[in-house]
Amino acid sequence: MTHDNDTPRLLEKAMEKMTEDMKARGIGAVIWNIPEAGFHYIPEIVLSPSDGSPARTARITGLYAFGDTLYAIEEDKAGVSTDSFYRPGVDVRPVVVTLSEAKAGELFGVPSEEKGFTTRGTLEEWVAVADCYFEALAES
């Protein structure tokens, strides 16, 4: 049983392990098509703005490992989709796309300076995102 004060460390450790796994596989980013992937969980993170405005739920459509930091890619904010990685009428629409570190860096840049990339979320939310990550790898 974990204590609440252990949760931030567990979350940090889990994110470090996913980042290490991505790097070991040569993956800089993984993007998935939520409706087509058939995940067991919908990857979502509740984001509470610091300005006091209402919280919003962000659907997570992938992960981007930038340096030693893992970012969740927000479905409607980052402008990232598997649709960007095929030619309609020529290629089969992908369910999962993996990008090398170099290609991810080229396409996404510095995530802390872009919209739609977040490191926030609870341990439970990131566990669901991690589950989707591993399910996505099994799809690709």
Account of the protein in words:
With 140 residues, the protein is of the alpha+beta class. It has four helices and six strands; from the N terminus they run αβαββββαβα. It has helices at 7-24, 34-37, 101-108, 123-139; strands at 29-32, 44-47, 56-66, 69-74, 96-99, 117-118. Strands 1, 2, 3, 4, 5 and 6 form a six-stranded antiparallel sheet that branches. Strand 2 (44-47) and strand 3 form a beta hairpin. Helix 1 (7-24) runs parallel beside helix 4. The model has no long low-confidence stretch (mean pLDDT 91).
In summary, what is this structure?
It is built from four helices and six strands. The chain is α+β, with helices and mostly antiparallel strands.
